[in-house]
Amino acid sequence: MNTIMRKSVLGVAGLAFAGGVFAGPATAHAAPSVQSTPVAVTVQADKPSADKAKLIPHGVQGAQSRIDLSDEQVANVKAIIAATKKAGMDERAAVVSIATALQESKLENLGHLGDRNDHDSQGLFQQRPSSGWGTVEQITDPEYSTTAFLKGLKQVDGWQDMPLTKAAQTVQVSAYPDHYAQWEQQAADLVAEHWNS
Fold first, then answer.
1. What is the pLDDT of residue 49?
2. What is d(CA 15, CA 11) in angstroms, rounded to the nearest whole number?
3. SS3 of residue 11 by DSSP
4. Given its phi and psi angles, is residue 111 left (phi above 0), alpha (psi -120 to 50 degrees) or beta?
5. DSSP annotation string for 46-92
6. Are 73 and 108 within 8 A, CB to CB?
7. For the whole prediction, is pTM greater than 0.85?
8. Burial class (CB in 10 A: 0-12, 13-18, 19+), 78
9. Are 157 and 175 in contact (CB under 8 A)?
10. CA dihedral sign, ordered 155, 81, 123, 164
């Protein structure tokens, strides 16, 4: 056997031996093989969002305003949505209601404001006991005041097809009828976020 061939054979044998020595102990001390069993994983799908086509069917009118909300204001948003659902009305009614409450009270359940008060207006929608909206206790209850607003909205023929500000104004009879429009986008965003929460 020639020298080159002998060196090649010994080299291959040496590699095989070395590989066995180094691999052997590592394999000998390796963790025992564990048979894995498939695990069922439950994935919760996102809740379906509100129907966005119903939220702003005619587009917003004019410049839009937006405020940051406290936990209390978000709780009032959720109360308005719950009352809207309880009244059997849709997402658009919730958008109109929340935009109205944003304009009237910034979604704060206001009590009597003394000299700064607009007559005897109170609650989320600044409803007046003297105008027949209910007692002070009633109109400062978010569910009651929302239900009262929605009852008025239901009586407006074609409110679903009106610009938000006109529908809100027909119920509220505000001295500033166009101011409701500025809250439509934020109201729609809030309904989209909380309608199914």
1. 57
2. 6
3. helix
4. beta
5. PPPPP-HHHHSTT---S--------HHHHHHHHHHHHHHHHTT--HH
6. yes
7. no
8. middle
9. no
10. negative
Q: What is the per-residue pLDDT for 14?
A: 47
- HSE-CB for 20 with a 13 A CA cutoff: 6
Q: d(Cα 192, Cα 20) in Å, to the nearest integer?
A: 65
DSSP structural state of residue 133? S
Angle at 150 between CA 175 and CA 98, to 5 degrees: 65
| Cβ(153)–Cβ(29) below 8 Å | no
**What is the rounded CA–CA span in Å between residue 56 and residue 174?**
22
* 150/95 Cα distance (integer angstroms): 11
Question: What DSSP state is assigned to residue 132?
Answer: T
Q: How far from the centroid of its chain's Cα atoms is residue 145's Cα? A: 22
Give the containing element (helix H, strand E) for 44. Answer: none
In this structure, the number of other CB atoms found within 10 A of the CB of residue 164 comes to: 25
Averaged over successive runs of 10 residues, the pLDDT of the chain (197 residues) comes to 47 45 42 41 47 78 94 98 97 97 94 59 90 92 97 96 94 90 96 94
Alpha carbons 167 and 184: distance in angstroms, whole number = 12
The vertex-99 CA angle with 52 and 55, nearest 5°, equals 10
